[in-house]
Amino acid sequence: SSNRRHTRYISVTGVQACALPISHQEFLQIDTTNVLFIVGGAFAGLDKVIEARIGKKSVGFTASLGLDNTNPDDIFSKVMPEDLMRFGLIPEFIGRLPVFASVTGLDQAALVAVLTEPRNALIKQYQRLFAIDGVELEFDKAAIEAIADLAMERGTGARGLRAIMEEALLQTMYEIDRKSTRLNSSHTDISRMPSS
Question: pLDDT of 29-49, one tens digit each?
Fold first, then answer.
């Protein structure tokens, strides 16, 4: 296990070390005054590093045990440069990141908004798709909330909404009765779809 972690650290370090000289090339002059560099990713395992640091606040009979009921979604908001070093990023790379920000998972209301509010929202896209065949597609509030709930259960967030809608409506799209001009969400029981 220790050897595997060491190998991972070397490979991550190698990638970072290769990325750094790109910004130091002599022949490429770029004014970065108005350039924002963003490093993003899932950083799987970083939460454990942060929890280990936060959990070791004090020692003795009066020491608090654990993370003081810290919300798991908030753990990344407590990241510090030393956590990134323990995670495997090299100091030269961390030094180029002056601001750390974290995002949290979307709740049901946010996922419903993603489904319905944008100009090109998924609900509107499917309504237009069905309209090509002369069918008016309607979603009631419960169906939209069920789609959002399923995305939350699967842990896919907004990325998974299209797959859930495709799964729910694919068969219906092939079976549209040309005589029917109105289709509502009761034709497809989203609540019966598997969560994973």
Answer: 777 677 777 788 778 889 899
